[in-house]
Every structure is written in structure tokens, then in C-alpha cells.
């Protein structure tokens, strides 16, 4: 796109991306958001519509959008191989692992130190999505 927005000097200041709101499309919005609240310590925002089709959940600086998949083809599928559906930075992966275990969420892997200077835990959410929580070491 070659169209400039105007001659305003503020428009020439490089833009920064401030936050990402990834969206997981699921079969059950309430089931998913309540699992993230109860098991991972997220705060649940208001539901959109009844029955719910959308909600924001957050913890600290992380915000997720949980949306209803209106058909099976639209559901967010579990990452395969070495990938994950969500990669989250933390300042204390060991404490986070212990918190999750107290909330009856057992990591499928870790805490483990990686060759790329990160300590990680990996877990599956209530929909089978792979989540990785990492700390720089």
C-alpha cells in the first residue's frame, strides 16, 4: 500500500506493537474460560451473548480471546511436533509450575532447561491446546 496517511509529524514516529490478544476458537467458551480461571489463575471478563460466544481472559500482561467455533473446522487445533499454541514469558517458571500443580494442572514436560537458554514447562489446556511457559536463563 503506497498511500500515506498525511503530513502529521507524529505519523513519522515508528509505531510499536503494544500487546497481542491471540484468540483460541473452542467448542465451549464458558468451559474454557472457567478452566483458565480455576487452573491457570486467569481473570474472567464478561461473556458476550448467552450462551457465551466470546470472552476476554487475562493474567498480568497476558490477554487471551476465547471465541466460539461455530463448526468443527473452525476449532483451534492442538499444535503438533515441537510447536505450541501459546508461548508465554514468565519471570519464575519454577514457581508457576508449582502453582499449576497445586491447581491440579500437571505439566506434560518440565521444568526443563533448553539449549536456547530458556527454562520451560509445557502443559495441555482443557481443549488439548499446548501451552508453553518460559523463562530466560
Brief characterization of the structure:
By secondary structure, the chain is of the alpha/beta class. The protein is built from 2 helices and 8 strands. A hairpin with a 4-residue loop joins strand 6 (109-113) and strand 7 (118-124).
Explain the overall architecture:
With 137 residues, the protein is α/β, with parallel strands linked by helices. It folds into two domains: 19-76, 2,3-Dihydroxybiphenyl 1,2-Dioxygenase, domain 1, CATH 3.10.180.10; 77-137, 2,3-Dihydroxybiphenyl 1,2-Dioxygenase, domain 1. The chain is built from two helices and eight strands. The protein has helices at residues 29-40, 93-102, and strands spanning 23-26, 43-44, 54-59, 62-68, 86-89, 109-113, 118-124, 130-136. The strands form two sheets. The chain has a four-stranded mixed β-sheet with strand order 1-4-3-2, covered by helices on one side. The mean pLDDT is 92.
Number of domains: 2
Oligomer: single chain
The CATH architecture of the largest domain is Roll
Task: Estimate percent helicity.
Answer: 10-25%
So what's the CATH class of the largest domain?
A: Alpha Beta
Number of helices: 2
Rg (CA only): 18 Å
Topology:
Elements: E1 23-26, H1 29-40, E2 43-44, E3 54-59, E4 62-68, E5 86-89, H2 93-102, E6 109-113, E7 118-124, E8 130-136
Parallel strand pairs: 1-4, 5-8
Antiparallel strand pairs: 2-3, 3-4, 6-7, 7-8
